[in-house]
Amino acid sequence: MEKVKSELLRVLEEVLRGYGFSPVITWTLRFFLRNPYESTVIVNKEGNLEFMDRGSEKLFDLPEGGGKGVKITEFVPDSALPEALKTGIPSIGRVFNVKGIRRIGSTYPLIRNGEIIGSIGRLIFRSFEEVERINREMDRLKREVKSFHKTQKQQWSALYTFESILGTSEAIRDTKEMAKKVATTDVDVLIKGESGTGKELFAHAIHNFANRDKPFVRVNSAALPFDLVESELFGYVKGAFSGASTAGKPGKFELAHNGTIFLDDIDSLPLSIQAKLLRVLQEKEVERLGSTGVKKVHFRLVATTNQDVSKMVTQGKFREDLYYRIAKVTLHIPPLRERKDDISAYVDSFLNTINARFDTHFKGLSNEAFDCFLRYHWPGNVREVINVLEQACLKKWDGEEIPMSCLPSEVICSSSLCGRALSKGFKEEVKETERELILQALEKTGGNKRRAAFLLGMPRSTLYEKLKEHRVNYHP
């Protein structure tokens, strides 16, 4: 039978070529009858099999030609082929139960001179369960893509608003009002301030005030590897350098199109990059590394620095033309030592957050501890306030007030309480406080020195030195 089929196909190919059909057409007809992915069955007008491809014969464990003359319903009881014979209407994408497995198929009536002479059926060998698995996989991929887009949107979103910026001092109120006015324009902004003053919060708030739905792309200039700064900021094309992605990569300025690019610590950028940055700011166009073309971009630049950039200009460490380009509007965030009125608001807010993290219940500082806060000069600014409160909470653990004894020694020693800041008696008092804290830590940890050192915020070697210094011999 197989030889007969092959001979018939060969004759068919010759006839088709004789009528001018190309080899592609003739081979397509051959593939149609021997398609390994789909079955082909043909029945006459009585519903008896006239043709069944070899794949279908194997599916039903039949020898070659073993199905000829048999009713199709003997093999597929719910076959739609008899229905096509009666109605002359095709059935496409219907689910059939074949040998206990759901499969997808289609049936078509064969009509000659207005008379139905048979019907043809096509069945996908893949099971319906496999199709469902593919659909589930597609749904999973769609969810992943949706999640990726959501994550990407969150990644390029500003987190803070002006309500996030705490403080009621005149200095901070004036700075916030100036920042709000700037936020309604598209002018570039340079934010100056010492480390820990909250420059990043102002950058986020400026963007969110008028452009919340636009991209906000953050760049930590100081953290960019020197040899990757250009490709990170401006992007690169395929094959721009060894190890480059084959698809190329957009730079941060392209990602910030129609939004804001936030360059934190802009003073850290190399002079060679500063020159290209100036061109991008002036022309509003970027040229990817390795590319010969440019791309127009529209963005607002918000930059921060904790350095005296004007001094860096005179030293030749920062381009003068770039400095005047980014400093059209300059916001100065005053250090905490110049606005001590804000300390109370910071303590209340940060203690609420710390209590939630450490499962503590502190309502505030003792009067002596708060006086230390007011007298301390806070070189680390607001960030140092958070750090000191966390240390104090870890040392105390319970109670409603944080006593002065739980504060770091540098905060205590800065206070002039009782007018004895550097007196011998005060030094002895500090030593006694330190000894008491060590004993409390050992008691809380059952004598475990490693955990006690962690609670005290010091290396274990330092704790051993303190134990020797204070002659502490603790036994639980």
Could you describe the 3D structure shown?
This protein has helices spanning about 1-20, 25-35, 55-60, 80-85, 130-155, 170-185, 200-210, 230-235, 250-255, 270-285, 310-315, 320-325, 345-360, 365-375, 380-395, 410-415, 425-445, 450-455, 460-470, and strands at about 40-45, 50, 90-100, 100-110, 115-125, 190, 215-220, 235, 250, 260-265, 285, 295, 300-305, 330, 365, 400. With about 475 residues, the protein is of the alpha/beta class. The protein has 3 domains: about 35-130, Beta-Lactamase; about 160-335, 3-Layer(aba) Sandwich (Rossmann fold), CATH 3.40.50; about 335-470, Orthogonal Bundle (Helicase, Ruva Protein, domain 3), CATH 1.10.8.60. The strands form 5 sheets. It has a 5-stranded antiparallel beta sheet with strand order 2-1-5-4-3. A hairpin with a 4-residue loop joins strand 1 (about 40-45) and strand 2. Helix 1 (about 1-20) runs antiparallel to helix 2 (about 25-35).
